[in-house]
Design brief:
This protein folds into two domains: 90 residues, Phosphorylase Kinase, domain 1 (2-Layer Sandwich); 203 residues, Transferase(Phosphotransferase), domain 1. By secondary structure, it is of the alpha+beta class. The termini are far apart. It is globular and about 60 Å long. 42% of the residues lie in helices and 13% in strands. Helix 9 packs antiparallel against helix 12 and helix 11 packs across helix 12. The strands form three sheets. The chain has a six-stranded mixed sheet with strand order 1-5-6-4-3-2, sandwiched between helices. Strands 7-10 form a two-stranded antiparallel ribbon. A two-stranded antiparallel sheet has the order 8-9. It holds the Pfam family PK_Tyr_Ser-Thr.
């Protein structure tokens, strides 16, 4: 340490008022030396505390995570401190929801309402995996139909993601209300389906690296104040090069009832697994009832099979009437059911691309693909 780091005694003020409080030159020297010693000890203790804290932090953060955080410095997301997020959420006062990943809280940053997703309740390895999946995908994507990631926090006391706040919550809160009470009108549901398809198409076809979501379902489609759809929750997402024909998965991903069969059968998985999940989403949008495979005793009771059988017999109109959909919406619903059948075909290669799905839903393509469940 340089001898000039601390001020010399000669640099002290020579103002008479300051000198008048001293009781003699010897006392001044002693007090000055003691002050120097105390200041030095305090400084060394401070340095030791910082070093120990830094070492503890570095022990906690793995090398891949350190590299990842360095890479994110050049990207758009803001890195918040835990103190900033505690202030933004009023010490995590208002809970929006929770799950296996952790808990989401409502907050305010500047003039923007935000949703702060705190990752906890799972293993450290799983937290880091989910954190990197969400930040690496959402931090590099910008599309109207994808929920916006404002920033993140990664520290010893808090690991969190800061998203734009969606005032109307998730789609499943509106699809599965009891007695069909206060349901969204079907023309708006059609817009939600098209918006969701556009968001997924962007992930698959317009990003520098293809992004596979793996968990498309009503709970992961968020709705803004105008009920515009935004795909959310990229904790299972995976980046892949476009020239890769398939993706290797160590474990199954997705939600039963929505996940493609190849995921659970340990077969080669491609981005077409998202297409399958979107098809299942379309079935639930048209049926507006949650169908649990666990309570189905006969496969013919499963809604996609019912739709397929009616389609083969040219009786989709009868099925639509059973779903209690207004007559003015019948043609749109019929188109959506046909698109859903295209999406859930067993062989991934027979499923359409999501950009093709958008065109079919919008009515720009009248002849649908050849179907073979």
């Amino acid at each position: 340490m340089s001898a000039n780091y601390f001020p010399s005694l000669s640099s002290l003020s020579s103002d008479p008022s300051s000198i008048s409080i001293s009781f003699g030159g010897g006392v001044i020297v002693v007090v000055g030396v003691l002050g120097f010693v105390v200041a030095t000890c305090g400084y060394l203790r401070c340095i030791r505390f910082i070093v120990e804290k830094t070492n503890a932090e570095s022990r906690r953060v793995t090398l891949p995570m350190v590299q990842f955080l360095d890479d994110m410095e050049s990207e758009k997301p803001i890195r918040f401190t835990s103190k900033q997020l505690r202030l933004a959420t009023n010490n995590f006062k208002t809970k929006l929801g929770s799950g296996g990943f952790g808990t989401v809280y409502k907050g305010v940053i500047g003039n923007n309402q935000v949703a702060v997703k705190v990752l906890n309740g799972i293993s450290k390895e799983r937290v880091e995996e989910q954190f990197m999946a969400e930040v690496s995908t959402m931090g590099r994507t910008h599309h109207f139909n994808l929920v916006r990631l404002y920033g993140f926090c990664f520290g010893s006391s808090l690991i969190a993601l800061v998203y734009e706040y969606m005032v109307n919550g998730s789609l499943d809160n509106h699809l599965f209300k009891k007695n069909n009470e206060a349901m969204i009108q079907f023309d708006k549901l059609h817009e939600i389906a098209v918006g969701t398809a556009r968001g997924i198409a962007y992930l698959h076809e317009d990003c520098a690296q293809r992004i596979v979501h793996y968990d498309i379902k009503p709970g992961n489609i968020l709705l803004d104040s105008n009920f515009c759809a935004k795909v959310a929750d990229f904790g299972l997402a995976k980046l892949c090069n476009r020239d890769n024909s398939h993706i290797s998965l160590a474990v199954g991903r997705g939600t039963p009832g929505y996940a493609a069969p190849e995921i659970w059968m340990c077969l080669h998985v491609t981005h077409k697994c998202d297409v399958y999940s979107f098809g299942m989403l379309l079935f639930e949008i048209t049926d507006r009832r949650r169908r649990d495979m666990a309570v189905i005793h006969d496969i013919r009771e499963w809604f996609p099979v019912c739709v397929w059988e009616k389609y083969e017999k040219n009786q989709l109109e009868d099925l639509i009437k059973d779903c209690k959909i207004e007559e003015k919406d019948h043609e749109v619903v019929k188109r959506m059911l046909k698109v859903a059948l295209c999406c859930v075909q067993y062989k991934p290669e027979t499923r359409p691309s999501m950009s093709f799905v958008v065109k079919m839903l919008e009515g720009h393509i009248l002849e649908l693909l050849c179907l073979s469940l």
